Amino acid sequence: xLELDGLVVSRRHGRSRFxxxxxxxxxxxxxxxLIRGRSGSGxxxxxxxxxxxxxxxxxxxxxxxxxxxxxxxxxxxxxxDDQALTxxxxxxxxxxxxxxxxxxxxxVADNILLPARLADVxxxxxxxxxxxxxxxxxxxxxxxxxxSMGERQRVSLARALAHRPRxxxxxxxxxxxxxxxxxxxxxxxxxxxxxxxxxxxVATHDDQLLKHGVAQMLRVEVDESGGDGDTVASxxxxx
Length: 239
What we know:
Mean pLDDT: 86
Oligomer: single chain
Low-confidence stretches: none
CATH topology: Rossmann fold
Number of strands: 10
Number of helices: 7
Distance between the termini: 20 Å
Number of domains: 1
Largest sheet: 10 strands, mixed
Helix content: 25-40%
């Protein structure tokens, strides 16, 4: 589904510089992946790269296979083909941020359907199917500000699935939830999403989530030997 190697991405904050290195990373369909690491290690930076919203400083190979021949994402990034990258995100990627990221001026139903409408793949009846499966049918006509945090994350998951993407990127999806709600959301993410043909990629610093079944685990760790006084260097390793 996704393969990259030789990737380096940097971010600057004032005089400080953060650098994340990925020697090799392969994400396969139907293999839910957990990316863990302490706060500030670079998990969100990696998710932004995988979500095609952050341009790496350099990359040897970056391929995305949706159907048929793989798409050379590295070439699209090199020639700054933002239109093609937007189409890739719109068609094949779902995103689930920490606090839901719902638009306050849309109803729950319209929030869920927005990605499918943008990709022109809205399917009659799929909203009802999703909302029943995720236990949010009674929320559809509400506005986001009427929802609890747990309900917002369920709605966010429905929205991420609405256009039937190949991959969902969930960045700390349980960080704002109590343990019971967090466990419920994580179980839905890791169990229901694959049943819809979508592979979840979940970033977290919560080791309690390791008890949930995942096929692959990665760790983003600060390289204590890398960088200099003004640089924090991190790397991605398999566990």
